[in-house]
Amino acid sequence: MFISISQDNQVKHVVPSTAKVMSLQALKRYTTQDRISKASDMSIIGFRVTKSANGGKAATAFVQSQNDPSKKYVVFIAGADANEDISSQKSVFVTCNCDDYKYRFEYPNTLNGASAIINSNGEPTFNRNPTFRPGLCKHLVAFAEYLVRNSV
Fold first, then answer.
1. What's the number of domains the chain is made of?
2. Which end of the chain has fewer CB atoms < 10 Å from its terminal CB, N or C?
């Protein structure tokens, strides 16, 4: 079982050990080009590296648009290995509290072992993502790119 805790808000994230696993690179490959392009407009603030409950490396931050700094979203990315950069781990856990992630990616990412039902009601994403394609919102793309640039 993959368990992680964000020390900022004490939310427990649990993924059954029977779930598939996905790397950050795999999640980004599934992400649409428009979300990757929009990520360049994001700013990372309040970045913090912690450890997950199972001892892996975890990172959390606020992400906001440079054009609209009034909206801040909480992103969280964790890996299972404490000795390896999150960006190069074979299995990661991701979440964001934005509506795009909640209604498009939380459910399919959970099916693939890369998230848990935290912000949504857990219903399948038939309307916004009928093929249940995993991926990242623009906030998680921006944070993932930040982690890669900074070797976290």
1. 1
2. N
